[in-house]
Automatic annotation (TrEMBL):
Residues 9-276 form the Tr-type G domain. GTP binds at residues 18-25, 86-90, 140-143. Gene3D superfamilies: P-loop containing nucleotide triphosphate hydrolases (3.40.50.300), Peptide chain release factor 3, domain III (3.30.70.3280), Translation factors (2.40.30.10). The keyword Lyase does not apply. This is Peptide chain release factor 3. It is found in: Cytoplasm. The gene is prfC. Pfam families: EF-G_D2, GTP_EFTU, RF3_C.
Length: 522
């Protein structure tokens, strides 16, 4: 009999973080192929194939051929049920991307071996690090000439400040890529060798016994030397240090040629955590607790005016989801029946009956939910920890085209802000509306929804990227400190925020007003 405990311990819920073009789509597809969730590559994103994934409902998605908000992919492998939460890159990068990381138990970071750590990887890494979740690293594109592996390991430590442990090590690279030395499984996996010689076992000394072509090459000796160096001077890998996010296991491979992916997946599933307890105002909630609970980490609006409904993505944190169950929305105390319209997203296999802690469900929403909402089955309601607010980087001044539409304009903005689609700021005296976002796409979605859902055409004036800093000692702030290069505004909780034009303007301000303590959100 499958108990809840067994079910929960089989869950692995993660997101892939990377900079555009590092190979996230390619790796995701390979993983889904292993799990049997798709039959051919090229089906994950519509972007490249002209097909649309099942998660693409929104008109805007179709127009752009992208997935506006993250979707969920699920497959079974090695008696584990794997949930991959997509975190979009490119211009569709938004707060959703960050919030999705609040709903996973671990992350997989892909690094392009030739490019090393890139801007978006760094941003996403920081959010994972802040949560202290385990991060697994896949160094991709070894079939091309890239940086020296030792250099990449050093960069991880220097740029990200995380210790690294090589689970395997490349033997050559690019045209001379021969395979990987698999430290964890004590074998060599040969590149482009498919017969029984693909995996060659290592002896007690960690060397190959017998005559093999791969040994003829100096690259094999070079790899052995590197491994010796790592054994002696490298970091120690322990599951505790992985669990606390202090060390990242590093895997080398090539997603495109499907090399090293299976080894990665199997080792990942072995070490990645199952759903962990979540903090709430009633203490930690155990995922094996029989009473269903979860929180909303994302709301996806349906852009089709004929279907005003939205979908709230819920991460289950305890218990088991059942169709038609009655739950409580902690924020309002309202009782809601999760009707039959509730289902898994991006997955028409209807496995929803088995959704337990760690899984994600989509709930049709007619305006009940906000980002961060807690839902509980228990009569004794509680709230999970608040989702953090993220420091926006892009800003727009917004007005209604038609002044007669002021009421609708403010109503629409307030609802979209509450829902978490965008952040609201106002100038101090004139109360001009300034919207803040993490990614450009949030503005486009905002504009589209204002028109479709609130029938308001908006005018957006780009005021560019800014460095937003909140103020610790608000009493010391004077109006005169506000200038075009350090604009003083209020956030929606009436906290004071400076929007600095750039780093230089911020430093100039701090030098001039050393008493003012500035801080950023995440
Ligand atoms: P994403 O933007 O991170 O989703 O990246 P994609 O998966 O779309 O990959 C970007 C480009 O890199 C595509 O042209 C891929 O074919 C290519 N690519 C991905 N993985 C590899 C790899 O292992 N080796 C090589 N040579 N190219 C790769």
């Amino acid at each position: 009999m499958t108990t809840l405990k067994n079910e929960v311990s089989s869950r692995r819920t993660f997101a892939i973080i990377s900079h555009p073009d590092a190979g996230k789509t390619t790796l995701t597809e390979q993983l889904l192929l292993f799990g049997g969730a798709i039959r051919s590559a090229g089906t994950v994103k519509g972007k490249k194939t002209g097909k649309y994934a099942t998660s693409d409902w929104m008109e805007i998605e179709k127009q752009r051929g992208i997935s506006v908000t993250s979707s969920v992919m699920q497959f079974d492998y090695d008696n584990k049920r794997v949930n991959i939460l997509d975190t979009p890159g490119h211009q569709d990068f938004s707060e959703d991307t960050y919030r999705t990381l609040m709903a996973v138990d671990s992350a997989v970071m892909i690094i392009d071996a030739a490019k090393g750590i890139e801007a978006q990887t760094l941003k996403l890494f920081k959010v994972c690090k802040m949560r202290g979740i385990p991060i697994f690293t896949f160094v991709n594109k070894l079939d091309r000439q890239g940086r020296e592996p030792l250099e990449i390991m050093e960069e991880l430590e220097e740029v990200l400040g995380i210790e690294s442990y090589a689970m395997n090590w490349p033997i050559g690279m690019g045209k001379e890529f021969l395979g990987i030395y698999d430290r964890h499984n004590r074998r060599i996996e040969q590149f482009r060798v498919e017969d029984q010689e693909r995996f060659l076992p290592l002896n007690e000394d960690g060397e190959l016994e017998g005559e093999y072509a791969i040994k003829q090459s100096g690259l094999y000796d070079q790899a052995l030397e590197d491994i010796m160096l790592l054994d002696e001077a490298g970091n120690q890998f322990t599951e505790e240090r992985l669990a606390s996010g202090d060390i990242t296991p590093v895997f080398f491979g090539s997603a495109l040629t499907n090399f090293g992916v299976q080894t990665f997946l199997e080792t990942y599933l072995q070490f990645a955590p199952s759903p962990q307890p979540r903090q709430s105002d009633a203490g930690a909630i155990d995922p094996e607790n029989e009473e269903f609970s979860g929180f909303v980490f994302k709301i996806q609006a349906n852009m089709n005016p004929a279907h005003r409904d939205r979908i709230a993505f819920l991460r289950i944190c305890s218990g088991k989801f059942e169709r038609g169950m009655t739950v409580q929305l902690a924020r309002t105390g309202k009782t809601i029946k999760l009707s039959s319209s509730t289902s898994f997203l991006a997955d028409d296999r209807n496995t929803v009956d088995q959704a337990v802690s760690g899984d994600i469900i989509g709930i049709y929403d007619t305006g009940n939910y906000q980002i961060g909402d807690t839902i509980t089955e228990s009569k004794k309601s509680f709230q999970f920890e608040k989702l953090p607010q993220f420091t926006p980087e892009l800003f727009m001044r917004v007005t209604a085209k038609n002044v007669m539409k002021q009421k609708h304009f403010h109503k629409g903005i307030n609802q979209l802000v509450q829902e978490g689609a965008i952040q609201l700021y106002k100038t101090l005296r004139t109360e001009d509306v300034i919207l803040g976002a993490v990614g450009q796409l949030q503005f486009e979605v905002f504009e589209h929804r204002m028109k479709n859902e609130y029938n308001v055409d908006v005018m957006m004036e780009n005021i560019g990227s800014k460095i937003a800093r909140w103020v610790e000692n608000e009493g010391d702030i004077k109006d005169s400190m506000s200038s075009s290069r350090s604009m003083l505004v209020k956030d929606r909780h009436d906290r004071l925020v400076f929007l600095f034009e750039n780093d230089f303007a911020m430093r100039w301000f701090s030098d001039k007003h050393p008493g003012i303590k500035l801080f950023s959100l995440l």
